[in-house]
Amino acid sequence: MWLMVHKWLGRPVADSTVPRVWALLNHRTGENSQVLALAEALGWPFEIKRFTYRRTVPYLLLGASLAGIHRDKSDSLAPPWPDLIISASARNEPICRWIQRQAAREGHRVRLVHIGRPWNRLDRFDLVITTPQYRLPRRSNVLHNSTTLHRVTTERLRAEGRRWRPRFAHLPRPLIAVMIGGSSGPYVMDETAARQLATEVNALAKRRGGSLLVTTSARTPRGVLEAFSERIDVPAHLFRWTPDCPENPYYAYLALAAEIVVTSDSVSMMTEACATGKPVHVFDLARVRHHPLHWSLGRLRAVVYRWAMDWLPRRLTRDLSLVHQRMIDEGHAVWLGRPCQGANGACFPTDMERALDRVRGLFRESAPDPVQLRPAFSQI
């Protein structure tokens, strides 16, 4: 019988006893990118699971349960059970534990790998892969990486750059990519921030004699791109992010840009920009000059979040400044407006290597019974 080729990786299955992997996606694009990055890098065939969540369910209070999803609108969760689950988000934690419990009833062990910060006890996971902003304690099952896992590879950038280069042939060089995020924690990405960002990157492009490649992201509020475009008078290609868009130029921007500007709210986008080895400018949303009398729900949330960072337990908040400072101190990026010394070199290249070694170690340290590791075939 011929071994099937996995529909996602496009790689042949070389060993009939490789672990069966499920990659559980959620509602956050950045976290999904990290889950997929790890699943792809492992080189084991994997199956993607997507869910439709119920809006009013208190996910943090659920145990091993599927109460947080609409089962009829979500991907099937049935045997053969996986040997490894890679996931992120509090919404998926009850699902992971439910799968693990169902498999255990059949004598099958499922290892759980969580990316980011889990809300359940750390000892419920075989491995947690985290980054500085979450400020998790040191534990034997917690891997502290410098930045997030990412899908920026030489092969992906080369392919996307080749595919999109003709579409940008009319734009004056150098190309400067601008990655716009959204409001997060103490940071507000609104029309005021968009105009200030536009003014600064427009001036940068004029000094360079080049053009802008501008993209929004999943969290970018409405009106931001319009406010940004009002302040731009240099040649530019603008892309508005939409879910599952088949023609997303994000990786092409990273591939073709000579320099990259990214807003400070997204550790994922900052990491991906730095991974290219190109000069990276970080636009500090904390220094946006808002009118003192102009208040919005976003600004109010940011003020409350800053208060929470000072007075509530650290587990309840994130401190992105810890990531910013490390990137700046180690020369991987500069604040927008500061002198840039040139290419920064690939950012934190060992993070993925450490993650892969720890995940594979889950199977080396406790070698599963070959009967439990089912053949990892997948239909095309």
How would you describe the overall organization of this protein?
The structure is a single chain. By secondary structure, the chain is α/β, with parallel strands linked by helices. It has 2 domains: 21-146 and 352-364, 3-Layer(aba) Sandwich (Rossmann fold); 154-347, Rossmann fold (3-Layer(aba) Sandwich), CATH 3.40.50. Helices cover 31% and strands 13% of the residues. It is built from 10 helices and 12 strands. It has helices spanning 29-42, 93-105, 154-164, 191-208, 224-230, 250-256, 267-275, 297-311, 321-329, 350-364; strands at 21-24, 46-49, 84-87, 111-115, 127-130, 142-144, 175-179, 211-215, 236-239, 259-263, 280-283, 334-335. The strands form 2 sheets. The chain has a 6-stranded parallel sheet with strand order 2-1-3-4-5-6, with helices on both faces. A 6-stranded parallel sheet has the order 9-8-7-10-11-12, sandwiched between helices. It is globular and about 65 Å long. The model is unreliable at 1-14 and 367-380 (pLDDT under 50).
